[in-house]
Task: inverse folding
């Protein structure tokens, strides 16, 4: 047994020599079975020259050479080769010492010989395979390189006669096995580039031979894949720099020997296996049945070659890619499939490593991508699937190098998927257009793809000039396959981020991220199809949903911390964001330019995209923009720059191109490829003239003048049209072209070589103007532009960063959330619903993370619509739903609870919605409307937690909001009588009570209701309600605003709508304003709104205006709403006032609220009086100093006065006044509230007046008095309290430094006026008390008047005493108390006289009291004669007498004296007026009281002196 050799995989018990001899025997045995081979006997000519030499014989060189050259050309010689080998190894035990080429030579001769048959060749191949297995062929073998070279040559040129097809194919299979042994075994690394290429070509050609069986081709392809894996795996071991130099060095030396080629159409006979050399005119005839065909074996290299490397890999890749060319008719789809699968294997193995080799990556980036993308529109489903798989693998492994290629593929895929699928090709004009230029009949190659620039899109959606593969919209399996491919490409967590960074933030790329998201979102919605439901369409919707949900999920993961750091070598994020914003403006400007250049330029200038550099001229700035922008319409650009007014711009535009050193044809090509040449001759002439000027300035060779350049430029344009326009039949020749340009170069001719170069350049390569071609030529041009952009765009940046997530989400959240919502609502599969729910949660997480309340609102709105809890119309009155007892708990079985209990998707939506909102309330804004609308619906169906149904007031604490009114909101008109009773009975449904009949609840209804209750419980509404109270300012205001809007809709808006409907109804007369019926939802919304405001006092400044707006709207027309609603509005206003009191800035709002309450109509005020007083009491107790100014006190007192008509409220109001007027350590009476307090107390006395009068009018036996009437008692106390306020006059003078006149007018006079007013009160007790207090104050010492100020005295009479007496003299006043009022008159008359005597009839009176005195006499006259039977008739003269005497005593009333009247003028006037007035009702009374003094004798004159 031989020792194992390096590389031997199996240890054999026998020696290698034994195996070799056995294989020789096997081969020769098969050879002898053939009749022709059996007749062959060895001949002397086959003897070796060594034997001749040993015997001393001379063998001529020519004979030896003839033998050598003919070795293996006959059957005998092939057999002799084995005989010689046996003789050689006979005496050698260690055959490893024999050169490997010697050992293998006979076997290779059989394989190479065309004389061999299939079985013979097969046996030889089996022998080789076994020699590989036993380790005879190993890496350390002698002369291994030459042996492998011969092996490769033999296998690639294997010839044998055809026999039966199955046996021949077995032979071919064995060839594949030996090649695999050679390349994949231990000796494979020692193969040279040429040998590797030969073997690969052999296997590849076998895989593509269509005449061979499917099994053989698939087996060969499997071998090919294994070989490709082996070869491409070596790329990880090579040094890229060394290998690239090797490729560069081999370009001019061995390149021809390594060229591989593949033929899929073999000759008509034989099984066909042969390697082809590209330089052969025809491929050799393999397996020919003619034994006469002889062929020399390829020369075996004598110098060892280095092991294979990059050149072999490059050649293999080149061949595979060239096979993919869809426009090459030499290859069929089957051949392309083989190449596609093989290329996919190569990229799978070494895709990432290929990027390290520029020569390999250049092949992939250019021809590889170009052919693959064209195959991606194939109609052949297998070709399409395989091409897409290869593309996916390519992007998976080589993405950094394929930035623009990926953009093109994604754009193509979206273009093909975006149009709606249709079941009829007749509705696909785009497909007809794309397939119009089909390939030749009989060809299996797909048609030439039509390409054109993208269509114009609005502003930011307009894409740059990228080649597009226009083809039929994808349908059915094709559509699904493309979507699956898209999903596979996008499976990386950073995919969407990478799209955004590389494309949306690149000025010259499409907004691919936005476009893909928009497409995916739209793809979730259904499309109109013929024939109803389509499984493929539904699956496409699921795939689009996968894209959307994957995008959201990965962004949510990054938000939770699963993101990568942004590498420092990448562009700064700020720069990318700036580029994105600038791109948006640029696209908008370009879009405007494409519509109207002037408008576009104005927009660009406004946004500083042009003319922003002060060092640049306007023409240079504009030209730079026009040249660099890929978004402009090239037709419009050509027209614009060729206008006369833009000549400077045109010149600068051409200078940017830099024509220096370029041939004129290439310069023109570069120019004409930047814009579309306009159609007018003048514009073309202007362009060529400018070109001539700019180009001639570069000093080109052979051109002598600018005019010569002008003519050349024109001739190139004409030549291009002549050579490539299909309508031109007779094309210009070179001679014609040269003849046309004779003498134009300043009178001389251009050299023939110069013109030939121009002619050939244009003839071979058409000058393709932008937007001119849509076929293969246009695509080639666009592809060339793409490659040019590739050199500038850099590599594809990949980083799973969260830096751009906020910007991305802001751009696309609306269609994303809408699509998820549609999927949730529409699809029924549990898996889809579950994923949609997860998508909602993630969107909510992102909304909170990025502080985007709009997104959160949209999520809430979308989910709320799916809950079915947003009722379009609520009933005017809540029906009587049945209430059942379940485990001791009452359960209301409503219509909603039954329906919702069967709506599983609605329950899911509700649970998801409220779970999302729970804990995320601060992220919600507009969505609160839907939340509270659902609360409202649940409330009306008794499904809310009891905690959310309570209303609080100042009287009974908390209570539950009633769903139905227990009594009518307003008292109906009274209708008595039998007829009314009969009518009511007849209009009542038979067998019904006043309440509607309550329907019975079935077991199913109860079960569904319990399901609903469980769902609502899972929603944790009470937790959400608690969280609302803890919201931040902005979301809290949004919540309150939502409540107000809903409440407004159910109250104010509804009232206006229904009242308008009632008033506009024909024949309807509305005597009184329309009143809304009781609506429990409006009360619930109001209570919720107020409860939120009360529990968030820190935000009262923001919340108050919203709440007050609603409350004031209700209280402005209180009679048109239900009593309970108005009562709750009043309570709400008063409950909020303490919060307002805490804020100095809101104090005025308190009194605005009080004023609204004080102005309520009496009927409404009476119904809410208790609440008002209780609320006001609480405010004044907690915030005593809040009421400061007189206006504020007046509002408070007005509010108290509005409650007097309610018995209980009046008692509380009076208690408040009592507390205020008490003189204690803490004095509440101030100059600001004094008058208001007096008026309020006066009001209480007046109420007693009204009550007593009403009792007397009712002819009741017992009159009201202090002992039996709280009203009279409060009135009596009020009088005492008013009188007691006089003590504050002196205090005000001391503490407030007020003038006596001010105190009198503002404090004294109101007290006296009130007492005088109540001195005519119907209640005798109140009247007498008031009169007594009035007299005491007037005649007492504390009256704050200045006796020297006659005006104040006149005010006492004119505003206090005179009005009192006037009132007492009225007959209707007397009728209220006929028995007691005469006494009051008597007392009042006495008061009149006493007051006059004290204030006017005093000594030293200098004022003119005549007018006031006459008024007093008038009143005394009326009092005396009001009733002659009255005591006044006797008392008045007596009182008058006293007054007259006092006036006489003080010198005011002096009778005339005689003979000379010594009185003053005022005494004379007063006496005359008094005498005249008294004489009217008491003749001679004045003369009796003050008699005229007797006349005095006149003094006698003195005697005259005597003269």
Result:
């Amino acid at each position: 047994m031989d020792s194992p050799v390096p590389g031997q995989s199996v240890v054999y018990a026998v020696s290698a020599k034994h195996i070799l001899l056995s294989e020789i025997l096997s081969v020769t045995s098969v050879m002898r079975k053939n009749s022709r081979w059996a007749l062959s006997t060895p001949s002397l000519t086959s003897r070796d020259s060594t034997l001749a030499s040993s015997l001393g014989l001379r063998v001529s060189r020519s004979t030896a050479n003839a033998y050598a050259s003919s070795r293996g050309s006959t059957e005998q010689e092939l057999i002799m080769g084995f005989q010689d080998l046996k003789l050689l190894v006979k005496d050698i035990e260690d055959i490893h010492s024999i050169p490997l080429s010697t050992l293998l030579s006979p076997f290779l001769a059989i394989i190479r010989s065309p004389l061999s048959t299939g079985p013979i060749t097969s046996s030889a191949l089996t022998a080789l395979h076994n020699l590989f297995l036993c380790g005879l062929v190993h890496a350390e073998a002698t002369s291994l390189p030459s042996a492998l070279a011969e092996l490769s040559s033999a296998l690639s040129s294997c010839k044998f006669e055809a026999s039966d097809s199955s046996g021949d194919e077995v032979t071919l299979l064995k060839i594949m096995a030996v090649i695999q042994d050679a390349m994949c075994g231990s000796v494979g690394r020692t193969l040279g580039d040429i040998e590797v290429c030969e073997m690969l070509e052999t296997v590849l050609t076998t895989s593509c031979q269509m005449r061979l069986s499917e099994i053989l081709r698939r087996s060969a392809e499997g071998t090919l894949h294994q070989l490709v894996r082996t070869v491409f795996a070596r790329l990880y071991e090579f040094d890229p720099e060394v290998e690239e130099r090797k490729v560069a060095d081999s370009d001019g030396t061995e390149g021809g020997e390594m060229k591989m080629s593949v033929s899929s159409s073999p000759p008509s006979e034989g099984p066909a296996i042969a390697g082809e050399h590209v330089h052969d005119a025809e491929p050799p005839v393999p397996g020919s049945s003619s034994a006469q065909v002889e062929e020399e074996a390829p020369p075996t290299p004598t110098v060892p070659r280095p092991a294979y490397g990059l050149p072999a890999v490059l050649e293999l890749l080149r061949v595979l890619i060239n096979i993919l060319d869809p426009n090459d008719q030499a290859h069929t789809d089957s051949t392309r499939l083989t190449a596609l699968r093989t290329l996919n294997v190569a990229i799978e193995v070494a895709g990432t490593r290929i990027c390290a080799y520029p020569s390999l990556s250049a092949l992939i980036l250019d021809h590889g991508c170009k052919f693959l993308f064209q195959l991606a529109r194939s109609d052949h489903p297998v070709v399409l699937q395989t091409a897409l798989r290869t593309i996916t693998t390519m992007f998976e492994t080589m993405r950094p190098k394929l930035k623009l290629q990926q953009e093109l593929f994604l754009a193509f895929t979206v273009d093909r998927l975006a149009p709606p699928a249709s079941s009829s090709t007749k509705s696909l004009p785009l497909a007809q257009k794309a397939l119009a230029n089909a390939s030749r009949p009989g060809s299996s190659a797909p048609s030439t793809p039509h390409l054109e620039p993208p269509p114009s899109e609005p502003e930011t959606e307009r894409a740059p000039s990228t080649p597009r593969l226009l083809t039929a919209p994808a349908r059915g399996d094709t559509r699904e396959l493309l979507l699956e491919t898209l999903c596979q490409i996008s499976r990386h967590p950073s995919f969407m981020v990478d799209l955004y960074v590389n494309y949306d933030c690149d000025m010259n790329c499409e907004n691919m991220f936005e476009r893909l998201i928009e497409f995916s979102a739209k793809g979730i919605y259904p499309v109109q199809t013929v024939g109803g439901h389509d499984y493929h369409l539904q699956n496409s919707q699921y795939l689009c949903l996968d894209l959307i949900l994957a995008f959201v999920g990965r962004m949510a993961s990054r938000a939770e911390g699963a993101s990568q750091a942004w590498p420092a070598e990448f562009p700064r994020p700020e720069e990318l964001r700036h580029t994105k914003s600038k791109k948006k403006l640029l696209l908008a400007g370009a879009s405007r330019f494409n519509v109207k250049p002037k408008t576009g330029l104005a927009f660009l200038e406004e946004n500083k995209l042009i003319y922003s550099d002060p060092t640049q001229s306007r023409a240079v700035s504009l030209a730079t923009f026009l040249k660099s922008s890929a978004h402009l319409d090239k037709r419009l650009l050509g027209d614009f720059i060729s206008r006369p007014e833009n000549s400077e711009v045109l010149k600068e535009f051409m200078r940017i191109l830099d024509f220096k050193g370029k041939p004129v044809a290439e310069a023109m090509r570069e120019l004409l490829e930047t814009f579309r040449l306009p159609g007018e001759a003048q514009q073309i002439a202007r362009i060529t003239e400018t070109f001539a000027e700019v180009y001639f300035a570069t000093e080109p060779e052979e051109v002598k003048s600018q005019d010569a350049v002008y003519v050349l430029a024109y001739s190139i344009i004409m030549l291009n049209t002549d050579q490539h326009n299909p309508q031109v039949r007779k094309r210009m020749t070179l001679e014609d072209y040269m003849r046309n340009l004779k003498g134009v170069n300043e009178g001389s001719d251009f050299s023939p070589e110069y013109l030939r170069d121009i002619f050939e350049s244009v003839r071979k390569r058409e000058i393709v103007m932008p937007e001119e071609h849509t076929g293969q030529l246009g695509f080639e041009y666009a592809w060339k532009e793409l490659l040019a952009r590739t050199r500038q765009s850099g590599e594809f940046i990949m980083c799973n960063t969260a830096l751009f997530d906020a910007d991305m989400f802001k751009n696309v959240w609306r269609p994303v959330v809408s699509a998820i919502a549609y999927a949730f609502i529409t699809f029924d599969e549990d898996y889809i619903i579950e994923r949609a729910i997860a998508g909602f949660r993630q969107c909510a997480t992102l909304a909170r993370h990025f502080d985007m309340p709009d997104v959160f609102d949209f999520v809430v709105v979308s989910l709320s619509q799916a809950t079915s809890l947003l009722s379009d119309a609520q009933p005017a009155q809540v029906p009587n739903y049945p209430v059942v007892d379940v485990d001791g708990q009452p359960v209301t079985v409503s219509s909603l609870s039954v329906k919702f209990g069967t709506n599983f998707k609605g329950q899911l939506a509700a649970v998801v919605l409220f779970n999302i909102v729970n804990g995320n309330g601060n992220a919600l804004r507009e969505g609160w409307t839907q939340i509270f609308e659902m609360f409202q619906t649940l409330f009306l169906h008794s499904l809310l937690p009891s905690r959310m149904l309570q209303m609080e007031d100042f009287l009974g604490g908390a209570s539950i909001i009633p769903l139905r009114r227990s009594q009518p909101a307003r008292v109906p008109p009274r209708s008595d009588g039998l007829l009314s009773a009969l009518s009511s009975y007849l209009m009542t449904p038979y067998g019904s009570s006043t309440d509607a009949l309550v329907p019975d609840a079935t077991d199913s209804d109860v079960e569904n209701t319990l399901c609903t209750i469980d769902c609502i419980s899972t929603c944790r509404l009470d937790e959400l309600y608690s969280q609302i109270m803890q919201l931040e300012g902005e979301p809290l205001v949004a919540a309150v605003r939502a409540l107000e809007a809903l409440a407004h809709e159910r109250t104010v808006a509804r009232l206006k709508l229904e009242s308008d409907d009632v008033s506009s109804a024909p024949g309807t007369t509305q005597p009184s304003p329309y009143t809304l019926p009781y609506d429990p939802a409006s009360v619930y919304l109001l209570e919720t709104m107020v409860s939120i405001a009360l529990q968030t006092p820190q935000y009262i400044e923001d919340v108050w205006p919203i709440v007050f707006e609603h409350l004031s709207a209700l209280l402005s027309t209180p009679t048109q709403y239900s009593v309970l609603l108005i009562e709750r509005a009043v309570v709400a206003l008063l409950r909020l006032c303490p919060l307002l009191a805490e804020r100095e800035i809101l104090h005025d709002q308190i009194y605005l609220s009080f004023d609204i309450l004080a102005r309520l109509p009496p009927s409404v005020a009476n119904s809410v009086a208790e609440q008002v007083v209780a609320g006001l009491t609480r405010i004044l107790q907690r915030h005593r100093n809040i009421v400061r100014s007189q206006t504020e006190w007046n509002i408070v007192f007005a509010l108290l006065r509005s409650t007097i008509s309610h018995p209980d409220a009046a008692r509380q109001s009076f208690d408040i006044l009592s507390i205020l007027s008490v003189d204690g350590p803490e004095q509440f009476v101030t100059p600001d509230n004094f008058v208001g307090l007096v008026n309020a107390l006066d009001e209480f006395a007046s109420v007693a007046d009204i009550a007593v009068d009403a009792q007397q009018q009712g002819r009741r036996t017992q009159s009201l008095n202090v002992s039996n009437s709280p009203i009279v008692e409060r009135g009596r106390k009020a009088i005492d309290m008013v009188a007691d306020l006089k003590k504050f006059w002196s205090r005000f003078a001391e503490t407030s430094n007020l003038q006596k006149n001010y105190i009198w007018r503002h404090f004294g006079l109101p007290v006296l006026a009130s007492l005088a007013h109540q001195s005519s009160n119907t209640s005798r007790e109140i009247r007498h008390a008031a009169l007594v207090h009035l007299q005491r104050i007037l005649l007492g010492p504390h009256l704050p008047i200045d006796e020297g100020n006659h005006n104040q005295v006149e005010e006492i009479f004119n505003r206090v005493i005179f009005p009192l007496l006037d009132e007492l003299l009225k007959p209707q006043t007397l009728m209220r108390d006929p028995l007691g009022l005469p006494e009051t008159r008597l007392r009042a008359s006495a008061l009149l006289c006493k007051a006059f005597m004290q204030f006017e009839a005093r000594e030293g009176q200098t004022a003119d009291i005549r007018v006031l005195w006459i008024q007093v006499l008038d009143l005394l006259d009326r009092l005396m004669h009001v009733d002659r039977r009255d005591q006044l008739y006797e008392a008045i003269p007596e009182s008058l007498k006293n007054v007259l005497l006092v006036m006489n005593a003080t010198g005011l009333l002096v009778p005339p004296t005689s003979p000379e009247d010594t009185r003053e003028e005022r005494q004379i006037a007063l006496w005359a007026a008094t005498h005249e007035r008294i004489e009217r009702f008491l003749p001679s009374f004045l003369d009796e009281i003050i008699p005229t003094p007797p006349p005095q004798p006149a003094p006698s004159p003195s005697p005259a002196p005597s003269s």
